Amino acid sequence: MRVGIMTSGGDCPGLNAVIRGAVLNGIKSHDQEYLGFLDGWRGLLQGEFMNLERSMVRGISKQGGTILGTSRTHPFDHPEGGVDGVAAALDRHQLDGLVAIGGEGTLAGAKRLADAGLPIVGVPKTIDNDLGGTDYTFGFDTAVQTGTEAIDRLRTTGESHHRCMVAEVMGRHAGWIALHTGMAAGAHAVLIPEQKVTMAQIAEWVGDAEDRGRAPLVVVAEGFVPEDAEEVHTPLGLDRHGRKRLGGIGDRLAPLIEDMTGIETRCTTLGHIQRGGTPTAFDRVLATRMGMGAADMVADGDWGRMVALTGTDIHRVPLEAALESLKTVPQHRYDEAALLFG
Amino acid sequence: MRVGIMTSGGDCPGLNAVIRGAVLNGIKSHDQEYLGFLDGWRGLLQGEFMNLERSMVRGISKQGGTILGTSRTHPFDHPEGGVDGVAAALDRHQLDGLVAIGGEGTLAGAKRLADAGLPIVGVPKTIDNDLGGTDYTFGFDTAVQTGTEAIDRLRTTGESHHRCMVAEVMGRHAGWIALHTGMAAGAHAVLIPEQKVTMAQIAEWVGDAEDRGRAPLVVVAEGFVPEDAEEVHTPLGLDRHGRKRLGGIGDRLAPLIEDMTGIETRCTTLGHIQRGGTPTAFDRVLATRMGMGAADMVADGDWGRMVALTGTDIHRVPLEAALESLKTVPQHRYDEAALLFG
Amino acid sequence: MRVGIMTSGGDCPGLNAVIRGAVLNGIKSHDQEYLGFLDGWRGLLQGEFMNLERSMVRGISKQGGTILGTSRTHPFDHPEGGVDGVAAALDRHQLDGLVAIGGEGTLAGAKRLADAGLPIVGVPKTIDNDLGGTDYTFGFDTAVQTGTEAIDRLRTTGESHHRCMVAEVMGRHAGWIALHTGMAAGAHAVLIPEQKVTMAQIAEWVGDAEDRGRAPLVVVAEGFVPEDAEEVHTPLGLDRHGRKRLGGIGDRLAPLIEDMTGIETRCTTLGHIQRGGTPTAFDRVLATRMGMGAADMVADGDWGRMVALTGTDIHRVPLEAALESLKTVPQHRYDEAALLFG
Amino acid sequence: MRVGIMTSGGDCPGLNAVIRGAVLNGIKSHDQEYLGFLDGWRGLLQGEFMNLERSMVRGISKQGGTILGTSRTHPFDHPEGGVDGVAAALDRHQLDGLVAIGGEGTLAGAKRLADAGLPIVGVPKTIDNDLGGTDYTFGFDTAVQTGTEAIDRLRTTGESHHRCMVAEVMGRHAGWIALHTGMAAGAHAVLIPEQKVTMAQIAEWVGDAEDRGRAPLVVVAEGFVPEDAEEVHTPLGLDRHGRKRLGGIGDRLAPLIEDMTGIETRCTTLGHIQRGGTPTAFDRVLATRMGMGAADMVADGDWGRMVALTGTDIHRVPLEAALESLKTVPQHRYDEAALLFG
């Protein structure tokens, strides 16, 4: 049985553990043979791949990133893509199945292809933990751990200088990383896209913490927007390529907080360090198990579904489960965290 | 409302986060006032405590160990203990409730006391993750992460010297730490108390790994006993090569593996480094939420129960849930891991 | 003997180890008694301090920041400052000596005060390692280690996405952090204030690395200015408080590198995480020894001098040694590192 | 110019950085070509090697261990060894020079070979930092950092259980690792081979720490022997309390300390985790610079010498410098550390 595997979209700690888990389980349990396509769908459609013998996945589960490379190529936007294009690629490589490791876009593409009869299984990947159908996605725990360690460092500077520290973490549409990082780091305010909060409320939390002699810590997700404060929305200007020129929400909030509270405030944007590097043990185990589960799904010809975690069990759910809606932070989880603010 | 709180049994990363979570939520949501008893039941029965004002729990969730201290005192073995003794102590301190953070012994004691009508709630604590009723206990993730990082270091020595490395991790009665650490570290064999394995099988796994050019890695739980190999059970002394025979199972296995495979083998016993130090973000979040949940239970007078994690939710279960049977590694989880051995 | 001690200027990992070293050695070897002034010179001049009994410095050498707090107050700018003001403060607190832990400004102030006959000794502090008279200053090793770990994480993202990663590290006037972090992380280009480099040269290094199939890594010190590229100098706009609004050199270089090489380029500014948090063992040992040395200097009445590291020895040098010139990266050290670029 | 390179003796963090530094500098500055011999002298004498093209050393400076493997083979004990054997091997591989990375045995062998006219340069390697002629050897800083992090974890257990913790670190003949780890971790006693200390003195330090409410921490080098206490030397077996008596000095000291002080005492032997894994940034920089320096020595035909660190400079010293005497901890360094004991 010949199986293709690829990683698509933003990189995420644990991708290599998924690849290793699938390849080892495929070889040892199902006599499968793996082709690793390079840079996601692009490699599949353009025929770029590496043969994943067992020795190729040796010791990679502790490596961040993906040995296959990744890209944001979408199977339906690519000139040689679409159902026919992907079907042709699978034929060309005599593949009996394809393991697509990726986020919303990849899984949506995988669903359309599977619905059209192509032998595809999915592995959900998002560092933001905002895909439905699974309790957690791999990479999230590493992002939270890395962010928490970085913020532990920021705090000592805040305390020594009696400053308010703002830490911007990842999370465009969902605040899971901010919620867990903030709770782990003991933040006095956590700001996430799901929750509208006024600048006055933020200033109150910051002020209350300072009144108790603390150096206020604010953890903000990149996708947060305050309910008011027009100033926050004023564009900082795009560069000539239309790329956002610097200045995430954290950099914009810091001077506002300083103005409103009179407390010297500094922002650090953690950025890419949250999504790279050695995965935590939690993510290595989760990703390895998901990869092994994907190889089993292929062996069973259980197409159009993906692996998922429920409690401590790896099982299978329809791809729809990940797609029907973004998994955002529910109100009760934010309320729980908010009890510790201020 | 006056509430007592204490930590009992072996220390565990996350204990301070539980204390902080309970105290902050208790103060802010329920107008509770906390007395922290020193060294577990001993402090309660002998009247040694500290008043846990908010400032006392400041920034402690990132600290390992417990600010209250701990001991193995059992409430029914202590001269001033038993139902009457504990009831008297609760009266003496005018306590409306008690939060008992501990393992099997403490929760069993708490159940007997609650059954006798005393206002007690529990928080399950075991670094071994072997208590029922909850998906995970805090401290386990830290132990696995610390063990995995240590074994990542051992591997480079094994590979440079073409040695087999044996790493002994904690786990007297359940192999959860060994299972997760071994899977995360890419072990060629994981040996746990739940599974009888012959020395021949171990030697085969080690030999297979070496045949593929790997430096074999064996992760063994302290409670593992091989199915055969009387020699392993022989009293301490020198082995037949005059090498000193050490105490733990890992130290005993190493020379046997070396004899059977001809591969130079060394053991490292990780010991106490697995149970101390800064908790992972995962454990800080889990422990904080459990502490907050315990304060809510006290506010509700929901005695005789404990907080537990199911999936991503903190909820409440009867104390029996933790006690009816040891939560050991199920066969399918070991079989899953074993696919990666050799 | 009553001794004052204070920490001034930017915080730095190791400050608490200096305080602990001075207090413990002072108490045990010299029967000294320590007053810790709060927020640097401000606390001395305004009479805010804490008595540093032995218990106050318990276990603090592993804590980042400074338990005394810090500020940028300069002894000659403060209304109650100047030689007379400081002399009066020393009298008021009946101090026989003062240990001033700080950077260039503090040591220059300390020299003027010592020249005027006041009993002051110095401990050199700069995370940038740019003070003369000593091989290393504490905090530098921690900044390099933290930066290197962060960049190790960035690399996996660069490699998975075939991107050029730019990492901006600290170093306004000297490139030591960039030089060591870049060499430790295997950077393909290191850009420091001491060295004028053209955009064309930077693009060549980046292009060469990519030609060899690498994901180019550029480590740039915040104080670097390219020899050309006017665009880099165009102001990104100041906010209404005249604070630099976002956009360090790294954020400005990234789009230029992308334009010149056609390689997708992203910047991460490590910022404050480099100067906070638990010090490395190297810095704990160095800082502890410097603190102990300062207590000995006070006992000897060896005023107007500071502790310094030469090779592995802690000894004493005149304060001038730190002040005569900024310790920048010498040409031969940059040339050595540059052999590994591209 | 064809150059051989090899790593011999115990593995050490930084070996790969030395190899990378030598190969990159050799290729880029001196048009050298490198053959990497496997498992030290054995590979050279038996003709096992890999060609070290630039791509072979890509990204290895952050990897622990050695990509070349190592062994304890001595060039004068090996049947095909000796001056003639090594000379023949150099001829056979048409080598113009050899870089020998190793400890005392390897450098002594290198000296005899160089004295006999063979083109050999040395790179000093010992995790124990006990080679003369250089301020530090690479690997030492990593061992101290890893040991300090592990002991930071042990402390929380000691404090929670009011126990004395004994940590055994490496150091057969010299106590550098124990001295620096102990000072960094805030040990109440540091025991090293260079210093005879009585059990009574150890018990006094431990007791004093406990009297001040601390959980005593003892850091002992594996080579330490108490001045008295015959019992420590008694063969393995059970102590008088029937507790199993383990192998290392730490395991033997713990019950003695407990007997003499009445304080519950536990030992953890850090073992191999100190010598493996990712090197610290300090060691990566030091090892890279030493490797680069070795390539320069080969280019200059500067045989019979080795690279060394003095202050912040890499320079060259005769091999004798490393061999004339073991670099042990001088009395003043122990006295300095001892001021913090108890």
Automatic annotation (TrEMBL), chains A, B, C, D:
Protein name (record): ATP-dependent 6-phosphofructokinase
GO biological process: canonical glycolysis; fructose 1,6-bisphosphate metabolic process; fructose 6-phosphate metabolic process
Keyword Magnesium: yes
HAMAP family assigned: Phosphofructokinase_III
Family (UniProt): Belongs to the phosphofructokinase type A (PFKA) family. Mixed-substrate PFK group III subfamily.
Keyword vocabulary terms for this entry: ATP-binding, Cytoplasm, Glycolysis, Kinase, Magnesium, Metal-binding, Nucleotide-binding, Transferase
Localisation per UniProt entry: Cytoplasm
InterPro entries named among the record's database cross-references: ATP_PFK, ATP_PFK_prok-type, Phosphofructokinase_CS, Phosphofructokinase_dom, Phosphofructokinase_III, PKF_sf
Binding site for substrate: T126, I127, D128, R163, M170, G171, R172, E222, R266, H272, I273, Q274, R275
Function: Catalyzes the phosphorylation of D-fructose 6-phosphate to fructose 1,6-bisphosphate by ATP, the first committing step of glycolysis.
